[in-house]
Amino acid sequence: MKVYRRMAADNASSVTEFILAGLTDEPELQMPLFFLFLGFYMVTVVGNLGLITLIGLNSHLHIPMYFFLFNLSFIDVSYSTTLTPKMLMGFVAKRNIISYAGCMTQFFFFCFFVFSESYILSAMAYDRYVAICKPLLYTVTMSPQVCSLLLLGVYGMGVFGAVAHMGNIMFITFCVDNFVNHYMCDIIPLLELSCNSSYINLLVVFIVVTIGIGVPIVTIFISYGFILSSILHISSTEGRSKAFSTCSSHIIVVSLFFGSGAFMYLKPPSILPLDQGKVSSIFYTAVVPMFNPLIYSLRNKDVKVALKKTLGRKFFV
Fold it and tell me: Quick check: 12 and 175 in contact, CB under 8 A?
């Protein structure tokens, strides 16, 4: 493997830039992967911005479920934009260099949006729980004030995750080299470059990631436990089918996002080498943001109706 390395002269202050390894060092794969992930990124941006526009233009979608979906699309397009352009540059540049400040900025916003996505998915699970288990109290329980507070908590946890990881990084010294074995600035490959990181740093990573993944997963499991119990008490087959279809899109998205995230971060580096971790991280950084609008639009009648109305108005005008 051809590796470009630059030794740090003295201590952390001498590291002014990092070299990102990228997804692969095979020359024949660079251009095919460039166009593949460029296509992913274009679908992600068009799909999520289209869903945001659709929800904004159609008043019948101004309900809690689509309020959270609106924010999910915003988070997806934001953190995909944080990572993908730099990854695309790595496919065409001889050396994919990122400044120290640029690396820390990318890492901060990556953490912020990933934590926010975890908690927006748990808020959506709670919304489905109220809609199915307490339908008569739905408008009161999921009032605009409650939705705003939930959203504040979502982005608050995003700030917590970003600040906690950044604090962990700021106390380490980069004194070995500046070659990051990843296509982005992430916590595990950055810790590998440090000469003073210890099990405490890895423990902090594990605790913070557990809060970012574990708490939302527990919330989602509890919500769907109550939902499943309510569905089983529905006598009509049509009612059960409708209830299941309401939750199916969210279950698919949750499985893709948390499955790949847990596989990457909740295993020791000795069990999951970084090269395999890079492949795993592709799912939640590129694939999941692309699939989210497709899953919610293709499996959702309200979105299909809104799309037809919006396109109908456009062609009429």
Answer: yes
